[in-house]
Amino acid sequence: MRKVVITGLGAITPLGIGVRRTWTRLLASSSGIVSIGARSPQFAVLPSQVAGIVPEGARADGGWNAKEWLRAGDERKMAKFAQYAMVASEEALADAGWSPTAEEDLMATGVYIGSGIGSLDDVYDTTLAYDRGGYRKVSPLFVPRLLINLAAGHISMRYGFKGPNHATTTACTTGAHSIGDAARFISFGDADVMVAGGAESCIHPLAIAGFARARSLATAWNDAPQLASRPFDRERAGFVIGEGAGVVVLEELEHAKARGARIYAELTGYGLSSDAHHMTAPREDGQGPFLAMKRALKHAGLKPAQVDYVNAHATSTPLGDAAENRAIKDLLLGENGKAKASEINVSSTKGAIGHMLGAAGSVEAIFTILALHHNSLPPTLNLDNPGDPADDFNCNYVPHTPQDCRVDVALSNSFGFGGTNASLCFSRFK
């Protein structure tokens, strides 16, 4: 199959707008998690009152102001998750230097952008409006703003891309699935270039209430929001909801070389699996994540010993972090693997940005690519005491501050409700 490389990156995260700002702040051990209790009385009564919010403010300061980032009419036509996807795509395409005008190039470029939940605000607000005033209170833009595939649709229309126009919604695995599936479009010859990733914006009382009722969220750190997301830490007690978007430009290798594009990394492997176990809880033995990572390495033709870094899904939940830790060690230790656990480099960037749901996998894939590109391991914030000794947390989890490390092969993991798992394998381009 044809080889796939990454030539462009774009991101909107709780650490700011843009990949450079986000990466710089991540390596500075900054946190984008803030208190949301004062936003409204509805937020104030929730058991979890912290979230990873895209910072508002002037564009020049790396903040979000829709009127500065979007074209006239975009804010009305697009739900916020689609707005984030559009801006992240603009950055990724500019970074890749890909702005085709020839019909042949437009037909060979596609878009694959997903979201886990989409526009909950539109559903909630329109439901209330319909209940109060009936049919005429429903906006003609309600359905187009609601549909998850409209993020990809708007991007395709904006740039005239006529290749595959696709979307996925696989809960918190969405971003990783989008990138992996899009890469396969290129591998099988359906496109030469794909704009791929995930976007999410559902910091809404209803969403938080739902996750809280499912006992998924951190509730003990409302007075200290920056401490709430604690992947792999003994005091971890739930995830922190986040928002944003991550988009990459994927390109067929020879196509990228022919136009002299900068290549960040090669996407060499993509593995998928299902827990087949429970709606929201992973198997304790980590079999699903283990299979996804094993299949990604098989696809890449690599051995466990060659993995230099794993960007973990680790959301800061007691069961999830322990299961993934077990899966990583089961895969990377032993025959064809590392000699000891301390040689395994693992970190979770959710300590800084929270869990961005459908955008998590794509944003974390970008962090993984940058770790490889810059030979720098991003830190796991708030990791004061690795998990319970019984869970055998004895890898290098990159606590608090980044670490310099040669990275030639890296895995990026994403798992979601319904037991869906994906792992992306990135390798240094040589």
TrEMBL record:
Keyword terms of this UniProt record: Acyltransferase, Fatty acid biosynthesis, Fatty acid metabolism, Lipid biosynthesis, Lipid metabolism, Transferase
Ketosynthase family 3 (KS3) domain boundaries: 1-428
BP GO terms, sorted: fatty acid biosynthetic process
Database matches in CDD domains: KAS_I_II
Pfam family, one: Ketoacyl-synt_C
Active site location: 172 (for beta-ketoacyl synthase activity)
Lineage: superkingdom: Eukaryota
PROSITE patterns: KS3_1, KS3_2
Molecular-function annotations in GO: 3-oxoacyl-[acyl-carrier-protein] synthase activity
Pathway assigned in UniProt: Lipid metabolism; fatty acid biosynthesis
GO cellular component: mitochondrion
Protein family membership: Belongs to the thiolase-like superfamily. Beta-ketoacyl-ACP synthases family.
PANTHER family, per the entry: 3-OXOACYL-[ACYL-CARRIER-PROTEIN] SYNTHASE, MITOCHONDRIAL, POLYKETIDE SYNTHASE-RELATED
Annotated protein name in UniProt: 3-oxoacyl-[acyl-carrier-protein] synthase
Organism annotation: Mytilinidion resinicola
